[in-house]
């Protein structure tokens, strides 16, 4: 599914929407990148894949059930978990993802 680079390891995986809740896919956090690959979409304008180096991520936060960050090209939104589940536990999942991303960013900064 996602080709990992040398020295890259998966820290967290889950389902997420990229930019909208309707462009669904698989989100992977590694020790070096955040990777999203489309698996299901009813958004005709949605992207099919997205990858960003953790070192490029700036200003990461959660807004409701979305993780929002800037990687230099404007804001990127990931809506973690499926929409029906996000009504119940989305905000908690977003906070868990945010914490994992922040931990990975801190480890990258410490290693670099």
Q: Report strand %.
A: 35-45%
The span between the termini is 28 Å
Mean pLDDT: 82
Number of separate helices: 1
What form results from the Cα inertia axes? Answer: globular
* Sheet with most strands: strand arrangement: 4-3-2-1-7-6-5
Total number of strands: 7
Low-confidence segments, given as residue ranges, are none
Describe the 3D structure.
The termini are far apart. The protein has 112 residues and is an alpha+beta fold. Helices cover 26% and strands 43% of the residues. It has 1 helix and 7 strands; from the N terminus they run βββββββα. The model has no long low-confidence stretch (mean pLDDT 82). The longest helix has 29 residues, at 83-111.
Could you list some keywords that capture this structure?
single chain, alpha+beta, 26% helix, 112 residues, 43% strand, globular
């Amino acid at each position: 599914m996602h080709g990992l680079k040398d020295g890259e390891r998966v820290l967290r995986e889950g389902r997420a929407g990229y930019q909208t809740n309707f462009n669904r896919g698989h989100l992977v956090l590694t020790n070096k990148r955040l990777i999203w690959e489309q698996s299901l979409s009813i958004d005709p304008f949605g992207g099919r894949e997205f990858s960003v180096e953790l070192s490029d991520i700036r200003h990461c936060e959660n807004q409701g059930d979305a993780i929002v960050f800037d990687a230099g090209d404007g804001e990127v939104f990931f809506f973690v978990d499926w929409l029906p589940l996000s009504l119940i536990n989305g905000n908690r999942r977003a906070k868990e993802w945010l914490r994992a991303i922040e931990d990975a960013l801190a480890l990258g900064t410490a290693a670099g």
